[in-house]
Amino acid sequence: MVATKKVGILGATGTVGQRFILLLADHPIFTIHALGASSRSAGKSYKDATKWKQSKPIPENVENMIVNECKSASFAECDVVFSGLDADVAGDIEMEFLKANLVVFSNAKNYRREPTVPLIVPTANSSHFDLIPHQRKIYGQDKGFLITNANCSTTGLVVPLKALQDAFGPLSHIIVHTQQAISGAGYPGVPSLDILDNVVPYISGEEEKIEWETGKILGAVNSDATGFDHLENTVVSATCTRVPVIDGHLESASIKFANQPAPSVEEIEKVLAAYTTEPQQLGCHSAPERAIIVNSLPDRPQPRLDRDLEKGQAVTVGRVRKCPVFDIKFTLLIHNTVLGAAGSSVLNAEIAVAKGLI
Ligand SMILES: NC(=O)C1=CN([C@@H]2O[C@H](COP(=O)(O)OP(=O)(O)OC[C@H]3O[C@@H](n4cnc5c(N)ncnc54)[C@H](OP(=O)(O)O)[C@@H]3O)[C@@H](O)[C@H]2O)C=CC1
Ligand SMILES: N[C@@H](CC(=O)OP(=O)(O)O)C(=O)O
C-alpha cells in the first residue's frame, strides 16, 4: 500500500484544471492539497474563482479551498504538482517549480520539445521515464523533475500507432485528419457564432504539434538514457479542424508500413485489441482495462457514445480497412480532456509512484 501523496494543481480553474479536480478528488494515492491560478483568482475560494463547466458538481472537499498564486513556496509541501496552465505563462512558472525541486506533470506545450524533458503518453511510451536521472543531473535536482504530456490529438494517434509499430515494425507515412471538440480550446474558447452550424478548418499550431510530437513519442530513449532517438523516417501529415462537439476528438488516419507486405485488416484489429501497456501491468489506479477498444460497428467510434469508455483513458478505434493509397486506414476517438490532458498527467504520476520516482 503506497502512502498518500499531497498534490497541487496549477491552472486549477481552467478546463483542464477542472478535469484534474474531478480525477483527483477521490483518488486512492493522491490528495488535493493546494490550488493555483492567476492573480485574478488568487485569494478567492475555488467555487468563486472558477466557472465550473463539468456535469458533476465541484467536489465538497475542494469548493472552499482558497486558490493561490502559482509560486512554488505555496506548493512546497506537495509531492506532485499537476499543471493545466495557459501556455503563455506555463514556461516560467513550471521552470520555477522544477528549480524548487518539485515534481511537475505539465499539459502545456512549452517543454515538449526540450531534449531532456520526456513527452509521455502513459499508454504509449512510459519507458521514457528512464531519462529522469539524467534530467535531475542537468537541473541539479535530487527529487524534482518535469514530465509533459502530449497534445490531445497527438495522444489519440500515438496509442494505436505504438501498438502497430511494436507488432509490425516502423511506419513510414501517416496522414491524419482531426475533428476536434471545442473543450480543446479552453474556456470561453471558440465563439458560439464561429462554431454552431459550422466547421472551422484551422487550429493554430495544432498540425505542427502532431507532426513533430509523434516522432519523439514513438522514438526510443537512447542507449545511455540521456536523450531520445526522434523517429526521422516516419513522416506525419496532419489536417486539423474544429467541430461543434463538446468533448472527444475524432481522427481519421491512413498509414503505410516500412516493411512490406503490410499486415491485413484482421491482423491489425487483433494486435490493437490485444495491446497491453506498462501502467496496466503496474496496476495503476487510472489505467484502462483496455488501452485500445476496437469497435467493429460500421459507424463507430462517435464522440458522444465512446468518449467515456474506460473512464476516458482508452482510445477507441473503428473502421479499420484497406487504404487504396497507403496500406490501412481507420478512425479513432480520444477524450481530449481526460486521456488527452489531465488523465494522462494523473496516470503518468501513478506510473512514477509505481516506479519509485516520487
Ligand atoms: N483543453 C484541452 O483539451 C487541452 C489543453 N491542453 C493545455 O493545457 C493548458 C490549459 O488548457 P485549458 O484548461 O484548456 O485552458 P483554460 O484557458 O481553460 O485555463 C487556463 C488556466 O491557466 C490559468 N492562468 C492564466 N493566466 C495565468 C497567469 N498569469 N498565472 C497563473 N495562472 C494563469 C487560468 O487561471 P484564471 O482562471 O485565474 O485565469 C486557468 O486556470 C494549456 O496549456 C493547453 O494548451 C493540453 C491538452 C488538451
Ligand atoms: N489545441 C488543442 C488543445 C491544446 O491546448 O493543445 P496543446 O496542449 O497542444 O497546446 C485543441 O484545440 O484541441
From TrEMBL:
Gene3D superfamilies listed in its UniProt record: Dihydrodipicolinate Reductase, domain 2, NAD(P)-binding Rossmann-like Domain
As recorded in UniProt, its EC number(s) are 1.2.1.11
**Catalytic activity as recorded in UniProt:** L-aspartate 4-semialdehyde + phosphate + NADP(+) = 4-phospho-L-aspartate + NADPH + H(+)
Q: Where is the signal peptide?
A: none
Active site feature:
152 (acyl-thioester intermediate), 249 (proton acceptor)
Q: Which CDD domains match?
A: ASADH_C_arch_fung_like (cd18130), ScASADH_like_N (cd02315)
Q: Which UniProt keywords apply?
A: Amino-acid biosynthesis, Methionine biosynthesis, NADP, Oxidoreductase, Threonine biosynthesis
One Pfam family in the UniProt entry:
Semialdhyde_dh
Pathway of this protein? Answer: Amino-acid biosynthesis; L-methionine biosynthesis via de novo pathway; L-homoserine from L-aspartate: step 2/3; Amino-acid biosynthesis; L-threonine biosynthesis; L-threonine from L-aspartate: step 2/5
Please list the GO terms describing molecular function: aspartate-semialdehyde dehydrogenase activity; NAD binding; NADP binding; protein dimerization activity
**Which SUPFAM superfamilies did the record assign?**
Glyceraldehyde-3-phosphate dehydrogenase-like, C-terminal domain, NAD(P)-binding Rossmann-fold domains
Which positions fall inside the Semialdehyde dehydrogenase NAD-binding domain?
6-132
Q: Which GO terms describe its biological process?
A: methionine biosynthetic process; threonine biosynthetic process
Family indicated by similarity: Belongs to the aspartate-semialdehyde dehydrogenase family.
What is its biological role?
Answer: Catalyzes the NADPH-dependent formation of L-aspartate 4-semialdehyde (L-ASA) by the reductive dephosphorylation of 4-phospho-L-aspartate. Mediates the second step in the biosynthesis of amino acids that derive from aspartate (the aspartate family of amino acids), including methioinine and threonine, the latter of which is a precursor to isoleucine.
What protein name does the entry list? Aspartate-semialdehyde dehydrogenase
Name its species.
Umbelopsis vinacea
